[in-house]
Design a protein that fits this description.
By secondary structure, the protein is an alpha/beta fold. The strands form two sheets. Strands 1, 2, 4, 6, 7, 8 and 9 form a seven-stranded mixed beta sheet that branches. Helix 2 runs parallel beside helix 4.
């Protein structure tokens, strides 16, 4: 498991916005900024570790109660402020993702982490459905409920293309215990079954990514790479504005049609049954 979760997120939030501090009133684990991207102002959001947090689980990068509700607060505010604007003028939301997981601590479970995570995920989806371009940039790790809470509802998901990127439902060690395999056996299985793989190239084969991006040094990006990533984000924003506000593009890509044939066929059959019921 990486010891650097959250570092890339903070680095890229600062590189893209020029800010590195939470807004007044926000917890120290959420960075939010209305910053320039191309010729428009976008809302940038990022969750980072806070070793001093009163909630132990979020000290190393998990997305907890305060993080989820704060994300939802910022998203709902943007939706309300742009409510009467035409789609072409709706503010873009850019989620910079480098999160370990959803916080599965006893305190969080008792206080309703499921509700907090749902509030954030619903706010992201609501922004997308209202016409806001929602773009995710996976700069590090995107695990489990952490990614569901922060970023997975985006119109377009971009990811860096390097060995430090992991997009998955579960960490290797936990998946190995549950499937009663060794980590080595699990990795071998990933070579045969794309959804089981921890390689971002296999994740891209599922059709869920808009684009893989190369950066020479993601933790210390030179200015030229930052400008290149901004250019890619602008392209994704323009593509999202032209596309549907649902997530149908994830099933229509060439990669999805090739790798997820069975899933697409089942969805089509279920839809036909629903329409004919």
């Amino acid at each position: 498991m990486s010891e650097h979760i959250g570092l890339r997120g903070r680095v890229w939030f600062e590189a893209l916005t020029g800010n590195n501090q939470p807004m007044s009133g926000d917890p120290g684990t959420v960075l939010a900024s209305n910053s320039q991207i191309g010729d428009e102002i976008a809302l940038f959001l990022c969750v980072i570790p806070n070793p001093s947090s009163r909630f132990p689980c979020v000290r190393d990068g998990q997305v907890g109660l305060e993080e989820a509700f704060t994300l939802a607060h910022h998203l709902r505010r943007v939706i309300a402020e742009d409510h009467e604007k035409p789609r072409a003028q709706k503010r873009t939301v850019i989620a910079i993702v480098d999160v370990k997981s959803q916080a599965y601590g006893r305190r969080e479970e008792t206080a309703g982490i499921f509700f907090a995570a749902a509030a954030s995920s619903d706010a992201y989806a609501s922004a997308r459905m209202a016409g806001h371009p929602v773009i995710s940039l996976v700069a590090g790790q995107a695990f489990s409920g952490g990614f569901l809470t922060h970023g997975y509802q985006a119109n377009r998901i971009l990811s860096f293309d390097d060995s430090g990127i992991v997009i998955h439902a579960m960490h290797k060690e936990a998946a190995a215990r549950i499937t009663r395999r060794s980590v080595d056996e699990l990795e071998e299985l990933g070579h045969q079954i794309a959804p089981m793989s921890y390689d971002v190239h296999d994740y891209a084969r599922l059709g869920l990514l808009y684009k893989l991006l190369h950066v020479d040094d993601p933790q210390n990006p030179p200015a030229a790479d930052v400008e290149a990533i901004k250019h890619e984000l602008i392209g994704a924003i323009q593509d999202a504005r032209r596309g549907a506000t649902d997530l149908s593009s994830r099933l229509q890509s060439d990669a999805a049609k090739q790798t997820r044939k069975a899933g697409i066929a089942v969805r089509a059959a279920l839809e036909a049954q629903w329409q004919n019921a």
